[in-house]
Fold this sequence. Notes:
Blueprint (H helix, E strand, L loop, with lengths): L6 H6 L3 H10 L11 H14 L5 H11 L2
Amino acid sequence: MATNIPVKTLLGYLPDSLIERLSVEHNVDKQVKKLEGKIVFKLLLYGVLSSSQLSLNVLISLFDKIGF
């Protein structure tokens, strides 16, 4: 039987230190001034798991509504 896990709970299992380490390792924030890689990763993961049709507009809406 499948168990539904809320996305926020799932994100809680990913420590910020791990995401930050990967961000530094892969240099994702090299030319970023406002939207860090850590936030983009969490937003994309949240969007993929919570929306059946992911688009830029959906991501913008989630970003504004949830306030990553």
